[in-house]
Amino acid sequence: MIMIKAIVRPDKKEVVLNELSQAGFHAATVIDVVGRGKQKGITLGDVLYDEIPKSLIMLAVNDGDKENVLEVILQHAKTSESGAFGDGKIIVSPIDEVYTVSSGVAEL
Q: Which site among 1, 55, 82, 87 is 20 to 30 Å from 8 CA-CA?
């Protein structure tokens, strides 16, 4: 299994979640976060906003589902056809073990 963490703009969160669900990926954890990217925040007038609101969507999926999940996120998290700075990042990492809390049973 792998963990996919998608950091997206808050206004894209519901679209991405709906499209993931339509593609059969219903289980996700969503956390509202703040952060900044390479642009080091946004300056509007004299004010620097270095903590920009984002949404973190986390999914644990089978290795074979990786490309499908990435395709859905990449297609629906962009703010335009070519994308823009601040549209987000996707992090993919392996999962060594998964346990169901209620039963204590390992899923891998």
A: 1
